Amino acid sequence: MNYEELLKKRIPPSRKKVAVAAAEDEVVLSTVCKAYEFGVAEPILCGDRVKIEALAKKYGLDISSFEVFHTTNGVESAELAVSLVKQRKADMLMKGLLQTADLLRAVLNKENGLRGGGVLSHVSVLHSPILDRMLLLTDAAMVTYPDLKIKAEMIRNAVIAAKGLDIENPKVAVLAAVETVNPEMQATLDAAGLTVMNRRGQIRDCVIDGPLAMDLALSEDAAKHKGVVSEVAGAADILLFNNIDAANSALKVFTVAGNCFFGGIVMGATAPIVLTSRSDTEQSKLYSIACAASVSC
After folding, report:
1. CATH number for domain 3-116+269-295, candidates 3.30.460.10, 3.30.428.10, 3.40.718.10, 3.40.140.10
2. Burial of residue 146, with CB atoms counted within 10 A of its CB: 0-12 exposed, 13-18 middle, 19 or more buried
3. CA distance 52 to 64
4. pLDDT tens by residue, 2-34
5. For the chain, domain boundaries
6. Looking at the DSSP assignment, which residues form a beta bridge with residue 44?
Protein backbone atom coordinates (compact mmCIF):
# COMPACT_ATOMS: atom_id res chain seq x y z
CA MET A 1 0.00 0.00 0.00
CA ASN A 2 1.48 3.37 -1.00
CA TYR A 3 1.33 6.63 0.90
CA GLU A 4 -1.63 8.11 -0.96
CA GLU A 5 -3.67 4.93 -0.44
CA LEU A 6 -2.93 5.09 3.29
CA LEU A 7 -3.93 8.74 3.40
CA LYS A 8 -7.19 8.13 1.56
CA LYS A 9 -8.16 5.48 4.14
CA ARG A 10 -7.95 8.18 6.81
CA ILE A 11 -10.12 10.80 5.07
CA PRO A 12 -13.14 11.48 7.36
CA PRO A 13 -16.71 11.85 6.00
CA SER A 14 -16.30 15.62 6.36
CA ARG A 15 -13.25 17.78 7.02
CA LYS A 16 -12.28 18.03 10.67
CA LYS A 17 -11.28 21.46 11.93
CA VAL A 18 -7.71 21.70 13.21
CA ALA A 19 -6.61 24.69 15.31
CA VAL A 20 -2.97 25.38 14.50
CA ALA A 21 -0.97 27.17 17.20
CA ALA A 22 1.77 29.48 15.86
CA ALA A 23 1.02 28.77 12.20
CA GLU A 24 3.73 31.12 10.86
CA ASP A 25 5.88 28.29 9.50
CA GLU A 26 6.30 27.34 5.85
CA VAL A 27 6.23 23.54 6.35
CA VAL A 28 3.23 23.71 8.69
CA LEU A 29 1.31 25.96 6.29
CA SER A 30 2.16 23.74 3.33
CA THR A 31 1.04 20.65 5.26
CA VAL A 32 -2.31 22.05 6.39
CA CYS A 33 -2.98 23.32 2.85
CA LYS A 34 -2.47 19.77 1.58
CA ALA A 35 -4.66 18.40 4.37
CA TYR A 36 -7.39 20.76 3.15
CA GLU A 37 -6.89 19.76 -0.50
CA PHE A 38 -7.14 16.06 0.40
CA GLY A 39 -10.36 16.68 2.33
CA VAL A 40 -8.80 15.66 5.63
CA ALA A 41 -8.98 18.87 7.65
CA GLU A 42 -9.99 22.51 7.61
CA PRO A 43 -7.26 24.61 9.25
CA ILE A 44 -7.88 27.48 11.65
CA LEU A 45 -4.63 29.42 11.79
CA CYS A 46 -3.52 31.15 15.01
CA GLY A 47 -0.41 33.28 14.80
CA ASP A 48 1.16 36.43 13.40
CA ARG A 49 -1.18 37.31 10.53
CA VAL A 50 1.44 39.37 8.66
CA LYS A 51 4.00 36.55 8.77
CA ILE A 52 1.42 33.91 7.85
CA GLU A 53 0.21 35.86 4.83
CA ALA A 54 3.78 36.67 3.76
CA LEU A 55 4.79 32.99 3.89
CA ALA A 56 1.68 31.95 1.99
CA LYS A 57 2.46 34.49 -0.75
CA LYS A 58 6.14 33.56 -0.89
CA TYR A 59 5.49 29.84 -1.31
CA GLY A 60 2.31 30.08 -3.38
CA LEU A 61 0.00 28.64 -0.73
CA ASP A 62 -3.72 29.38 -0.96
CA ILE A 63 -5.00 30.14 2.53
CA SER A 64 -7.95 32.23 1.39
CA SER A 65 -10.46 29.63 2.69
CA PHE A 66 -8.94 29.50 6.19
CA GLU A 67 -9.83 31.52 9.27
CA VAL A 68 -6.79 33.40 10.57
CA PHE A 69 -6.64 34.72 14.14
CA HIS A 70 -3.86 37.20 14.83
CA THR A 71 -1.68 36.66 17.91
CA THR A 72 1.54 38.34 18.95
CA ASN A 73 3.51 35.41 20.40
CA GLY A 74 3.60 31.65 20.81
CA VAL A 75 2.03 31.56 24.27
CA GLU A 76 -0.94 33.65 23.15
CA SER A 77 -1.28 31.52 20.03
CA ALA A 78 -1.29 28.29 22.06
CA GLU A 79 -3.92 29.61 24.45
CA LEU A 80 -6.15 30.74 21.59
CA ALA A 81 -5.85 27.46 19.66
CA VAL A 82 -6.61 25.46 22.82
CA SER A 83 -9.64 27.65 23.55
CA LEU A 84 -11.02 27.01 20.05
CA VAL A 85 -10.84 23.27 20.68
CA LYS A 86 -12.30 23.62 24.17
CA GLN A 87 -15.23 25.61 22.74
CA ARG A 88 -15.68 22.89 20.07
CA LYS A 89 -14.96 25.33 17.30
CA ALA A 90 -12.16 22.95 16.31
CA ASP A 91 -11.91 19.16 16.55
CA MET A 92 -8.19 18.84 17.17
CA LEU A 93 -5.06 20.82 17.98
CA MET A 94 -1.78 21.11 16.09
CA LYS A 95 1.59 22.46 17.16
CA GLY A 96 3.22 24.99 14.84
CA LEU A 97 6.28 27.17 15.36
CA LEU A 98 6.44 27.25 19.16
CA GLN A 99 7.95 25.37 22.05
CA THR A 100 6.20 22.12 22.97
CA ALA A 101 6.23 23.23 26.62
CA ASP A 102 4.22 26.35 25.75
CA LEU A 103 1.60 24.31 23.95
CA LEU A 104 1.31 21.71 26.69
CA ARG A 105 1.10 24.40 29.35
CA ALA A 106 -2.02 25.71 27.61
CA VAL A 107 -3.40 22.18 27.16
CA LEU A 108 -2.90 21.35 30.85
CA ASN A 109 -4.31 24.62 32.20
CA LYS A 110 -6.81 23.59 34.90
CA GLU A 111 -9.44 26.16 33.96
CA ASN A 112 -9.08 26.70 30.22
CA GLY A 113 -7.17 23.66 28.99
CA LEU A 114 -8.00 20.26 27.55
CA ARG A 115 -7.29 18.00 30.51
CA GLY A 116 -8.78 14.56 30.05
CA GLY A 117 -8.38 13.26 33.57
CA GLY A 118 -5.44 10.97 32.85
CA VAL A 119 -1.93 11.03 31.49
CA LEU A 120 -1.04 12.53 28.11
CA SER A 121 0.87 10.04 25.97
CA HIS A 122 2.20 9.92 22.44
CA VAL A 123 1.03 7.25 20.02
CA SER A 124 3.08 6.61 16.88
CA VAL A 125 0.99 5.24 14.02
CA LEU A 126 3.13 3.16 11.67
CA HIS A 127 2.42 1.21 8.52
CA SER A 128 5.01 -1.45 7.82
CA PRO A 129 5.52 -2.35 4.14
CA ILE A 130 7.22 -5.56 5.27
CA LEU A 131 4.43 -6.73 7.58
CA ASP A 132 1.80 -4.99 5.41
CA ARG A 133 -0.15 -3.77 8.40
CA MET A 134 -0.54 -0.97 10.90
CA LEU A 135 1.30 -0.83 14.22
CA LEU A 136 0.77 1.60 17.08
CA LEU A 137 3.81 2.31 19.24
CA THR A 138 3.88 4.07 22.59
CA ASP A 139 5.58 6.13 23.94
CA ALA A 140 8.47 7.51 21.90
CA ALA A 141 8.04 11.20 22.62
CA MET A 142 6.37 12.20 25.90
CA VAL A 143 6.23 9.75 28.81
CA THR A 144 9.77 8.97 29.92
CA TYR A 145 9.94 6.18 32.54
CA PRO A 146 6.37 5.10 33.35
CA ASP A 147 5.39 2.92 36.30
CA LEU A 148 2.65 0.31 36.20
CA LYS A 149 -0.18 2.79 36.74
CA ILE A 150 1.03 5.11 33.96
CA LYS A 151 1.55 2.17 31.60
CA ALA A 152 -2.08 1.17 32.12
CA GLU A 153 -3.18 4.69 31.16
CA MET A 154 -0.88 4.66 28.12
CA ILE A 155 -2.55 1.45 26.97
CA ARG A 156 -6.00 2.99 27.42
CA ASN A 157 -4.94 6.00 25.31
CA ALA A 158 -3.49 3.78 22.60
CA VAL A 159 -6.64 1.62 22.54
CA ILE A 160 -8.81 4.71 21.98
CA ALA A 161 -6.51 5.71 19.10
CA ALA A 162 -6.65 2.18 17.67
CA LYS A 163 -10.44 2.15 17.69
CA GLY A 164 -10.48 5.50 15.87
CA LEU A 165 -8.20 3.93 13.28
CA ASP A 166 -10.62 1.02 12.75
CA ILE A 167 -8.81 -1.55 14.91
CA GLU A 168 -11.41 -3.12 17.15
CA ASN A 169 -10.29 -5.02 20.26
CA PRO A 170 -6.59 -4.38 19.53
CA LYS A 171 -3.90 -6.81 20.64
CA VAL A 172 -1.36 -5.18 22.96
CA ALA A 173 2.16 -6.54 23.36
CA VAL A 174 3.89 -5.37 26.55
CA LEU A 175 7.52 -5.53 25.53
CA ALA A 176 10.58 -6.61 27.46
CA ALA A 177 13.93 -8.15 26.59
CA VAL A 178 12.63 -11.62 27.49
CA GLU A 179 9.30 -13.40 27.47
CA THR A 180 9.48 -14.80 30.99
CA VAL A 181 8.83 -13.02 34.27
CA ASN A 182 12.07 -12.19 36.04
CA PRO A 183 11.90 -10.56 39.50
CA GLU A 184 15.09 -8.66 38.69
CA MET A 185 13.61 -7.09 35.54
CA GLN A 186 10.89 -4.55 36.34
CA ALA A 187 9.67 -4.50 32.73
CA THR A 188 8.66 -8.15 33.00
CA LEU A 189 6.88 -7.62 36.33
CA ASP A 190 4.91 -4.69 34.91
CA ALA A 191 4.04 -6.72 31.82
CA ALA A 192 2.67 -9.55 33.92
CA GLY A 193 0.70 -7.10 36.05
CA LEU A 194 -0.87 -5.44 33.00
CA THR A 195 -1.81 -8.83 31.57
CA VAL A 196 -3.60 -9.76 34.79
CA MET A 197 -5.34 -6.35 34.93
CA ASN A 198 -6.66 -6.96 31.43
CA ARG A 199 -7.94 -10.44 32.25
CA ARG A 200 -9.74 -9.08 35.30
CA GLY A 201 -11.39 -6.28 33.29
CA GLN A 202 -9.36 -3.42 34.75
CA ILE A 203 -8.12 -2.53 31.27
CA ARG A 204 -10.88 -3.10 28.72
CA ASP A 205 -11.52 -3.25 24.98
CA CYS A 206 -8.23 -4.94 24.14
CA VAL A 207 -6.22 -8.13 24.61
CA ILE A 208 -2.95 -7.71 26.52
CA ASP A 209 -0.08 -10.15 26.82
CA GLY A 210 3.40 -9.82 28.18
CA PRO A 211 6.20 -9.90 28.74
CA LEU A 212 6.92 -10.43 25.05
CA ALA A 213 10.19 -9.82 23.26
CA MET A 214 9.90 -7.80 20.06
CA ASP A 215 10.33 -10.78 17.76
CA LEU A 216 7.45 -12.59 19.48
CA ALA A 217 5.21 -9.54 19.20
CA LEU A 218 5.74 -9.28 15.43
CA SER A 219 6.44 -12.81 14.21
CA GLU A 220 4.23 -15.88 14.43
CA ASP A 221 7.19 -17.99 13.34
CA ALA A 222 9.28 -16.71 16.25
CA ALA A 223 6.44 -17.56 18.66
CA LYS A 224 6.13 -21.07 17.25
CA HIS A 225 9.89 -21.59 17.35
CA LYS A 226 10.03 -20.55 21.03
CA GLY A 227 6.90 -22.49 21.91
CA VAL A 228 5.01 -19.40 23.08
CA VAL A 229 1.23 -19.74 22.87
CA SER A 230 -0.36 -16.31 22.86
CA GLU A 231 -3.24 -14.55 21.12
CA VAL A 232 -1.02 -11.47 20.81
CA ALA A 233 2.25 -13.05 19.67
CA GLY A 234 2.84 -12.42 15.98
CA ALA A 235 -0.31 -10.30 15.74
CA ALA A 236 0.29 -7.28 17.98
CA ASP A 237 -1.49 -4.05 17.03
CA ILE A 238 -0.06 -1.97 19.88
CA LEU A 239 3.52 -2.13 21.13
CA LEU A 240 3.98 -0.81 24.68
CA PHE A 241 7.62 -0.08 25.48
CA ASN A 242 9.14 0.03 28.92
CA ASN A 243 10.57 3.53 28.53
CA ILE A 244 11.13 6.37 26.09
CA ASP A 245 14.68 5.24 25.26
CA ALA A 246 13.54 1.88 23.91
CA ALA A 247 10.47 3.32 22.18
CA ASN A 248 12.29 6.20 20.50
CA SER A 249 15.08 3.92 19.26
CA ALA A 250 12.56 1.42 17.91
CA LEU A 251 10.56 4.14 16.17
CA LYS A 252 13.65 5.35 14.34
CA VAL A 253 14.55 1.82 13.29
CA PHE A 254 11.01 1.31 11.96
CA THR A 255 11.05 4.56 9.99
CA VAL A 256 14.67 4.74 8.82
CA ALA A 257 15.63 1.09 8.29
CA GLY A 258 12.14 -0.39 7.99
CA ASN A 259 10.81 2.31 5.63
CA CYS A 260 7.57 2.60 7.62
CA PHE A 261 5.11 5.41 7.04
CA PHE A 262 4.71 7.33 10.28
CA GLY A 263 2.27 9.68 11.97
CA GLY A 264 2.11 10.78 15.59
CA ILE A 265 -0.69 11.98 17.87
CA VAL A 266 -0.93 12.84 21.54
CA MET A 267 -3.80 11.14 23.34
CA GLY A 268 -5.28 11.64 26.78
CA ALA A 269 -6.59 15.18 26.33
CA THR A 270 -10.23 15.89 25.45
CA ALA A 271 -9.19 16.07 21.79
CA PRO A 272 -6.27 14.60 19.82
CA ILE A 273 -3.15 16.72 19.45
CA VAL A 274 -0.83 16.72 16.44
CA LEU A 275 2.60 17.21 17.98
CA THR A 276 5.19 16.74 15.27
CA SER A 277 8.91 17.49 15.22
CA ARG A 278 10.53 19.98 12.85
CA SER A 279 12.60 17.05 11.55
CA ASP A 280 9.48 15.10 10.55
CA THR A 281 8.78 14.98 6.84
CA GLU A 282 5.79 16.76 5.32
CA GLN A 283 4.34 13.32 4.58
CA SER A 284 4.63 12.41 8.25
CA LYS A 285 2.98 15.66 9.35
CA LEU A 286 0.13 15.17 6.88
CA TYR A 287 -0.41 11.57 7.97
CA SER A 288 -0.41 12.74 11.61
CA ILE A 289 -3.24 15.18 10.82
CA ALA A 290 -5.15 12.43 9.01
CA CYS A 291 -4.76 10.02 11.95
CA ALA A 292 -5.89 12.71 14.42
CA ALA A 293 -8.90 13.42 12.21
CA SER A 294 -9.84 9.73 12.31
CA VAL A 295 -9.47 9.57 16.08
CA SER A 296 -11.55 12.73 16.58
CA CYS A 297 -14.55 11.23 14.74
Report:
1. 3.40.718.10
2. buried
3. 12
4. 667 777 778 888 899 999 999 999 999 999 999
5. 3-116+269-295, 121-261
6. 19, 67
**Residue 278 buriedness (CB in 10 A; 0-12 / 13-18 / 19+):** exposed
CA angle 142, 1, 224 (to 5 degrees): 75
pTM above 0.70, yes or no: yes
Q: How would you write 93-152 as a 3-class SS string?
A: EEECCCCHHHHHHHHCCCCCCCCCCCCCEEEEEEEECCCCEEEEEECCCCCCCCCHHHHH
Q: Tell me if 3-116+269-295 shares its fold with 121-261.
A: yes
Supply the CATH classification number for the domain 121-261: 3.40.718.10
Cα–Cα dist 232/62, whole Å: 46
pLDDT tens-place string over residues 84-100: 999 999 999 999 999 99
